[in-house]
From TrEMBL:
Domain Luciferase-like residue range list: 1-320
Name of the molecule in the record: LLM class flavin-dependent oxidoreductase
Transmembrane portions of the chain: none
Superkingdom: Bacteria
Protein species of origin: Micromonospora orduensis
Length: 351
């Protein structure tokens, strides 16, 4: 099983200087991930929210990460595909692929927050169907096929994206927030799948992985795909010197992160309104319930022995890669110390 580093954002900055410091953290942690042998670094696409303020453009940030690393893959987790023209996505990531000498990959997200779609308001209602339909087009464009699209006069013109990427195959994941239908769709499209441990039981996750594997094997061959898909799961991660240290350092940031996620959900106008109606006391209770549940299963928060058992359990479920979500509020020094401890566990996962 592979181990990667996932940036997902827990920012409380309100100034350019604060944001610049966050980018310094990301660069330093990425250099460490590269030298310690982690498989990939993932950066998200986030817009207009407190959570993830420094992540509006994965390809721009990934270009910087590609320039300061030598071997680690540089991936987007995720690209909100309905917000972008597929041709532009391929152009941007072809640049990153050249800078990294073939180390790119993206996970396609359909998008969920209504505010994000001020960038493409006419695509919100059909965002899921549009994202799934555009994945084969991404593969064709990456392979160098010319496609016919209307130009500024409204007449069709054949275009081929430039520059040409280094890698002949575009590794694509499909991001899922937990819907079984999305796991099945990923299998049918023969994409990899990027999910999360949080918000579901071990049994629920095992069933979704089973659905994905079944759909993948039944799907016909498709351009740029492999015989077996990759299941990547995101998990909050801090490997402490012992369980007590991990709980002490991670609990406060984890509560704050979960509370900010509740606030973001409440601001989504397409939601059912229940989250927005919660009182402060109810929000506190929900956050504490989620924290306790997550500490009991699905996170990598604990001693090396605790995290080793969790990783082996995820491997037994059929997980191929864990994307270790590290920037949920810990200091840079703590993140780096945890990554060094985590790197020492890798040999147990490849045995």
């Amino acid at each position: 099983m592979d181990l990667s580093v996932m940036f997902f954002g827990a920012d409380d900055c309100d100034s350019g200087a604060g944001h610049a410091a966050k980018y310094d953290d990301i660069l330093e942690i990425t250099r460490a991930a590269d030298s310690l042998g982690f498989t990939a670094v993932w950066t998200p696409e986030r817009h207009f929210q407190q959570v993830g303020q420094v992540f509006p453009s994965p390809p721009v940030l990934s270009a910087a990460l590609a320039a300061v690393t030598n071997r680690v893959a540089v991936r987007a987790g995720s690209v909100v595909l309905p917000l972008h023209h597929p041709l532009r996505v391929v152009e941007d990531w072809s640049v990153v692929d050249n800078l990294s000498r073939g180390r790119t990959g993206i996970s396609v997200a359909t998008g969920w927050h209504s505010t994000d779609f001020v960038l493409a308001p006419d695509r919100y209602a059909g965002r899921r169907q549009q994202a799934l339909a555009d994945i084969p087009l991404l593969r064709r464009l990456w392979a160098g096929e010319a496609v016919e699209l209307p130009d500024g006069t409204g007449r069709p013109v054949a275009v081929r994206p430039q520059p040409r990427p280094v890698s002949p195959r575009f590794p694509i994941w499909l991001t899922t927030s937990g819907s079984p239908e999305t796991w099945t769709a990923a299998g049918r499209l023969r994409t990899n799948v990027l999910g999360a441990t949080i918000g579901q039981t071990r049994q629920e996750l095992a069933e979704k992985i089973r659905r994905y594997r079944t759909a993948y094997q039944a799907a016909p061959e498709q351009l740029g795909t492999t015989d077996r898909g990759t299941v990547t799961l995101m998990a909050h991660t801090y490997v402490g010197a012992d369980d007590a240290e991990a709980t002490r350092l991670a609990s406060g940031p984890l509560r704050a992160y979960l509370r900010s996620y509740v606030a973001q959900t409440a601001a989504n106008r397409a939601g059912d309104g229940r989250t927005a109606a919660l009182t402060a006391e109810q929000t506190d209770a929900l956050v504490e319930f989620a924290r306790q549940r997550y500490l009991s299963w699905g996170s990598l928060l604990g001693s090396p022995d605790t995290c080793r058992r969790s990783l082996l359990d995820l491997r037994d479920l059929g997980c191929d890669e864990v994307a270790c979500f590290v920037d949920f509020g810990l200091d840079r020094s703590d993140i780096l110390a945890g990554l060094h401890r985590l790197a020492e566990l890798r040999k147990d996962l490849t045995a």
